[in-house]
């Protein structure tokens, strides 16, 4: 549980913490497990594949509702906050930035509609053996495989100012 302690200390000491969601839509496609990723078209992380998510807004009733709202806005599907399954926490720091990102990670299997391109994300289904880690955030290959195995995660990744690589990290993976 080293990561959980480190994450708690980081959040306690940070001058500013901003809450984000990050959700992964999962499906069984005729016996093949697939995850929906989106190519981020603008803003933070543009040009990378990622799950769907964003800032938790004061108007969101719960963090799960925020995760569902972001999924609905970015992939144009309908997901209920109550169908969001919380899978853990990731904390990201960036050298020279006082603000710490507290990312609430979810998975979801229940949705309606067909994932479609929005102004922020271009969605695509990937089989678990074809996830484009080379075009994702540097941290993803450390924890996403565990998430896709159904595990819970708590981690912290401390990135350089240029946001391309991290110089330190801790990660706890536990059975769900
Ligand atoms: C640093 O490593 C990261 N890895 C991964 N996998 N995901 C990350 C990382 N840092 C941030 N994220 C996620 C967290 C959020 O889901 C998004 C960022 O949210 P964004 O800035 O796009 O928030 P919005 O509210 O959608 O932004 P707009 O104001 O542009 O609508 O990336």
Automatic annotation (TrEMBL):
Keywords: Hydrolase, Magnesium, Metal-binding
Biological process annotations from GO: DNA protection
Start and end residues of each Nudix hydrolase domain: 16-152
Annotated CDD domains: NUDIX_MTH1_Nudt1
GO cellular component, one term: cytoplasm
PROSITE patterns found in the cross-reference section: NUDIX
Alphabetized GO MF terms: 8-oxo-7,8-dihydroguanosine triphosphate pyrophosphatase activity; dATP diphosphatase activity; metal ion binding
UniProt xrefs under SUPFAM superfamilies: Nudix
EC identifiers of the protein: 3.6.1.56
Cofactor(s) of this protein: Mg(2+)
Reaction equations catalysed: O(6)-methyl-dGTP + H2O = O(6)-methyl-dGMP + diphosphate + H(+); 8-oxo-dATP + H2O = 8-oxo-dAMP + diphosphate + H(+); 8-oxo-dGTP + H2O = 8-oxo-dGMP + diphosphate + H(+); 2-oxo-dATP + H2O = 2-oxo-dAMP + diphosphate + H(+)
Source organism superkingdom: Eukaryota
Assembly mode: Monomer.
Chain's role: Oxidized purine nucleoside triphosphate hydrolase which is a prominent sanitizer of the oxidized nucleotide pool. Catalyzes the hydrolysis of 2-oxo-dATP (2-hydroxy-dATP) into 2-oxo-dAMP. Also has a significant hydrolase activity toward 2-oxo-ATP, 8-oxo-dGTP and 8-oxo-dATP. Through the hydrolysis of oxidized purine nucleoside triphosphates, prevents their incorporation into DNA and the subsequent transversions A:T to C:G and G:C to T:A. Also catalyzes the hydrolysis of methylated purine nucleoside triphosphate preventing their integration into DNA.
Name the record gives this protein: Oxidized purine nucleoside triphosphate hydrolase
Species of origin: Achlya hypogyna (Oomycete)
